Amino acid sequence: MRVLVVEDDPGIADLMVRGLERAGYDTAAAASGQQALLASPDPDVVLLDLGLPDMDGVEVCRALRERSDMAIIVVTARGEEGDRVAALDEGADDYLVKPFGLAELLARIRAVLRRVRPADREVLHHGDLTVDLRTRTVTVGGREVALTPKEFDILEALAVDPGRVVTRQEILERAWDTHWYGPTKVLDVHVAGLRRKLDRPGLVETVYGRGFRLGTPDPQAAPPDAP
Ligand code: CA
Known about the structure:
four-stranded antiparallel sheet, binds calcium ion, single chain, 12 strands, 8 helices, elongated, five-stranded parallel sheet
Protein backbone atom coordinates (compact mmCIF):
# COMPACT_ATOMS: atom_id res chain seq x y z
CA MET A 1 0.00 0.00 0.00
CA ARG A 2 1.65 3.24 -1.18
CA VAL A 3 0.98 6.53 0.61
CA LEU A 4 2.01 9.95 -0.70
CA VAL A 5 2.36 12.75 1.86
CA VAL A 6 1.91 16.16 0.21
CA GLU A 7 3.11 18.68 2.80
CA ASP A 8 5.40 21.70 2.51
CA ASP A 9 6.31 21.84 6.21
CA PRO A 10 9.34 19.52 6.41
CA GLY A 11 8.86 18.88 10.15
CA ILE A 12 5.26 17.71 9.77
CA ALA A 13 6.07 15.77 6.59
CA ASP A 14 8.91 13.95 8.31
CA LEU A 15 6.77 12.96 11.32
CA MET A 16 4.01 11.68 9.05
CA VAL A 17 6.37 9.73 6.80
CA ARG A 18 8.10 8.07 9.74
CA GLY A 19 4.83 7.18 11.46
CA LEU A 20 3.35 5.74 8.27
CA GLU A 21 6.43 3.67 7.56
CA ARG A 22 6.39 2.28 11.08
CA ALA A 23 2.77 1.29 10.47
CA GLY A 24 3.86 -0.67 7.40
CA TYR A 25 2.98 1.73 4.58
CA ASP A 26 5.34 2.31 1.69
CA THR A 27 5.54 6.12 1.98
CA ALA A 28 6.81 8.96 -0.20
CA ALA A 29 6.68 12.74 0.31
CA ALA A 30 6.06 15.70 -2.00
CA ALA A 31 6.72 19.28 -0.84
CA SER A 32 4.64 21.03 -3.52
CA GLY A 33 1.62 20.58 -5.74
CA GLN A 34 3.79 20.10 -8.82
CA GLN A 35 5.80 17.37 -7.10
CA ALA A 36 2.57 15.67 -6.03
CA LEU A 37 1.28 15.60 -9.60
CA LEU A 38 4.57 14.15 -10.86
CA ALA A 39 4.50 11.26 -8.36
CA SER A 40 4.79 7.94 -10.13
CA PRO A 41 3.46 5.31 -9.90
CA ASP A 42 0.12 6.53 -8.60
CA PRO A 43 -0.15 6.14 -4.82
CA ASP A 44 -3.06 4.26 -3.21
CA VAL A 45 -3.59 7.01 -0.63
CA VAL A 46 -2.74 10.73 -0.79
CA LEU A 47 -2.57 12.90 2.32
CA LEU A 48 -2.97 16.36 0.84
CA ASP A 49 -2.12 19.58 2.66
CA LEU A 50 -4.24 22.36 1.17
CA GLY A 51 -1.84 25.22 1.97
CA LEU A 52 0.88 24.55 -0.61
CA PRO A 53 3.49 27.05 -1.83
CA ASP A 54 2.97 26.71 -5.59
CA MET A 55 -0.63 25.64 -6.22
CA ASP A 56 -4.06 25.68 -4.66
CA GLY A 57 -4.49 22.35 -2.87
CA VAL A 58 -8.04 22.13 -4.20
CA GLU A 59 -6.63 22.21 -7.76
CA VAL A 60 -4.21 19.44 -6.86
CA CYS A 61 -7.12 17.41 -5.48
CA ARG A 62 -9.12 17.85 -8.69
CA ALA A 63 -6.15 16.89 -10.88
CA LEU A 64 -5.40 13.76 -8.81
CA ARG A 65 -9.03 12.70 -8.79
CA GLU A 66 -9.26 13.01 -12.58
CA ARG A 67 -6.29 10.70 -12.84
CA SER A 68 -7.34 7.77 -10.66
CA ASP A 69 -9.57 6.48 -7.88
CA MET A 70 -6.81 6.79 -5.26
CA ALA A 71 -8.02 7.62 -1.75
CA ILE A 72 -7.50 11.33 -1.00
CA ILE A 73 -7.48 12.65 2.56
CA VAL A 74 -7.19 16.42 2.80
CA VAL A 75 -5.15 17.82 5.68
CA THR A 76 -6.02 21.37 6.63
CA ALA A 77 -5.36 24.08 9.17
CA ARG A 78 -8.38 25.20 11.17
CA GLY A 79 -8.92 28.38 9.15
CA GLU A 80 -9.30 26.61 5.82
CA GLU A 81 -12.89 25.42 6.17
CA GLY A 82 -14.04 26.80 2.82
CA ASP A 83 -11.14 25.05 1.09
CA ARG A 84 -11.94 21.83 2.89
CA VAL A 85 -15.51 21.87 1.59
CA ALA A 86 -14.24 22.70 -1.91
CA ALA A 87 -11.79 19.78 -1.74
CA LEU A 88 -14.56 17.37 -0.69
CA ASP A 89 -16.59 18.65 -3.65
CA GLU A 90 -13.60 17.94 -5.90
CA GLY A 91 -13.47 14.31 -4.85
CA ALA A 92 -11.52 14.18 -1.59
CA ASP A 93 -12.66 11.20 0.51
CA ASP A 94 -12.10 12.65 3.96
CA TYR A 95 -10.31 15.44 5.80
CA LEU A 96 -8.22 15.88 8.90
CA VAL A 97 -7.78 19.14 10.79
CA LYS A 98 -4.30 20.03 12.10
CA PRO A 99 -3.01 19.33 14.64
CA PHE A 100 -3.84 15.62 14.65
CA GLY A 101 -2.32 12.52 16.21
CA LEU A 102 -0.76 9.65 14.34
CA ALA A 103 -3.35 7.17 15.65
CA GLU A 104 -6.15 9.28 14.20
CA LEU A 105 -4.35 9.62 10.88
CA LEU A 106 -3.91 5.84 10.63
CA ALA A 107 -7.55 5.23 11.58
CA ARG A 108 -8.74 7.67 8.88
CA ILE A 109 -6.59 5.94 6.27
CA ARG A 110 -8.01 2.54 7.21
CA ALA A 111 -11.57 3.89 7.18
CA VAL A 112 -11.14 5.50 3.77
CA LEU A 113 -9.58 2.37 2.33
CA ARG A 114 -12.47 0.29 3.64
CA ARG A 115 -14.88 2.55 1.77
CA VAL A 116 -12.83 2.92 -1.41
CA ARG A 117 -11.78 -0.72 -1.69
CA PRO A 118 -14.19 -2.94 0.19
CA ALA A 119 -12.40 -6.06 -1.07
CA ASP A 120 -9.32 -5.09 0.92
CA ARG A 121 -11.31 -5.62 4.10
CA GLU A 122 -10.76 -9.31 3.69
CA VAL A 123 -7.03 -8.99 4.25
CA LEU A 124 -5.89 -7.01 7.28
CA HIS A 125 -2.35 -5.64 7.34
CA HIS A 126 -0.24 -4.45 10.24
CA GLY A 127 3.47 -4.05 9.57
CA ASP A 128 4.58 -7.40 8.14
CA LEU A 129 1.55 -9.21 9.60
CA THR A 130 -1.31 -10.16 7.27
CA VAL A 131 -4.60 -11.69 8.40
CA ASP A 132 -6.77 -13.06 5.60
CA LEU A 133 -10.33 -13.22 6.92
CA ARG A 134 -11.66 -15.20 3.98
CA THR A 135 -9.14 -18.05 4.04
CA ARG A 136 -8.35 -17.61 7.76
CA THR A 137 -4.63 -17.63 7.05
CA VAL A 138 -2.01 -15.55 8.80
CA THR A 139 1.50 -14.62 7.68
CA VAL A 140 4.30 -12.81 9.48
CA GLY A 141 7.15 -11.56 7.31
CA GLY A 142 5.88 -13.84 4.52
CA ARG A 143 5.94 -16.93 6.77
CA GLU A 144 2.60 -18.68 7.17
CA VAL A 145 1.61 -19.19 10.79
CA ALA A 146 -0.74 -22.05 11.66
CA LEU A 147 -3.13 -20.88 14.38
CA THR A 148 -5.92 -22.68 16.21
CA PRO A 149 -9.43 -21.29 15.57
CA LYS A 150 -9.44 -19.51 18.95
CA GLU A 151 -6.01 -17.98 18.37
CA PHE A 152 -7.21 -16.76 14.96
CA ASP A 153 -10.34 -15.19 16.46
CA ILE A 154 -8.27 -13.37 19.07
CA LEU A 155 -5.85 -12.06 16.44
CA GLU A 156 -8.73 -10.98 14.21
CA ALA A 157 -10.29 -9.03 17.09
CA LEU A 158 -7.01 -7.12 17.48
CA ALA A 159 -6.11 -6.75 13.80
CA VAL A 160 -9.37 -5.13 12.64
CA ASP A 161 -8.20 -1.96 14.40
CA PRO A 162 -4.49 -2.14 15.21
CA GLY A 163 -3.48 0.13 18.05
CA ARG A 164 -6.90 0.16 19.69
CA VAL A 165 -7.07 -1.52 23.08
CA VAL A 166 -9.51 -4.43 22.87
CA THR A 167 -10.85 -5.40 26.28
CA ARG A 168 -10.68 -8.94 27.58
CA GLN A 169 -14.48 -9.02 27.62
CA GLU A 170 -14.72 -7.99 23.97
CA ILE A 171 -12.30 -10.70 22.94
CA LEU A 172 -14.09 -13.34 25.01
CA GLU A 173 -17.44 -12.38 23.53
CA ARG A 174 -16.06 -12.48 20.03
CA ALA A 175 -14.02 -15.67 20.25
CA TRP A 176 -16.11 -17.70 22.68
CA ASP A 177 -19.70 -16.78 23.24
CA THR A 178 -21.93 -13.75 23.28
CA HIS A 179 -21.64 -13.61 27.04
CA TRP A 180 -18.82 -15.25 28.84
CA TYR A 181 -19.13 -15.15 32.60
CA GLY A 182 -16.54 -17.78 33.39
CA PRO A 183 -12.93 -17.31 34.36
CA THR A 184 -10.93 -15.31 31.84
CA LYS A 185 -7.70 -17.21 32.51
CA VAL A 186 -8.43 -19.30 29.39
CA LEU A 187 -7.85 -16.17 27.30
CA ASP A 188 -4.29 -15.80 28.61
CA VAL A 189 -3.50 -19.36 27.65
CA HIS A 190 -4.59 -18.76 24.05
CA VAL A 191 -2.83 -15.37 23.89
CA ALA A 192 0.38 -17.05 25.07
CA GLY A 193 0.05 -19.62 22.28
CA LEU A 194 -0.65 -16.90 19.74
CA ARG A 195 2.44 -14.92 20.79
CA ARG A 196 4.65 -17.98 20.64
CA LYS A 197 3.53 -18.79 17.09
CA LEU A 198 3.73 -15.21 15.79
CA ASP A 199 7.24 -14.98 17.27
CA ARG A 200 7.23 -11.15 17.23
CA PRO A 201 7.89 -9.74 20.71
CA GLY A 202 5.79 -6.61 21.22
CA LEU A 203 3.26 -7.41 18.49
CA VAL A 204 0.51 -8.59 20.84
CA GLU A 205 0.78 -6.08 23.68
CA THR A 206 -0.80 -6.45 27.11
CA VAL A 207 -2.38 -3.22 28.31
CA TYR A 208 -2.42 -3.82 32.03
CA GLY A 209 -5.89 -3.84 33.56
CA ARG A 210 -7.59 -3.18 30.22
CA GLY A 211 -6.88 -5.77 27.58
CA PHE A 212 -4.69 -6.26 24.55
CA ARG A 213 -3.74 -4.47 21.37
CA LEU A 214 -1.49 -4.89 18.37
CA GLY A 215 1.70 -2.94 18.94
CA THR A 216 4.72 -2.18 16.83
CA PRO A 217 7.32 -4.87 17.39
CA ASP A 218 10.74 -3.52 18.26
CA PRO A 219 12.92 -4.26 15.21
CA GLN A 220 15.96 -4.31 17.51
CA ALA A 221 14.46 -6.99 19.75
CA ALA A 222 16.34 -10.24 19.48
CA PRO A 223 14.29 -13.38 18.82
CA PRO A 224 13.44 -15.08 22.11
CA ASP A 225 15.77 -18.01 21.49
CA ALA A 226 18.80 -15.90 20.48
CA PRO A 227 21.82 -16.14 22.76
CA1 CA B 1 1.20 23.93 4.24
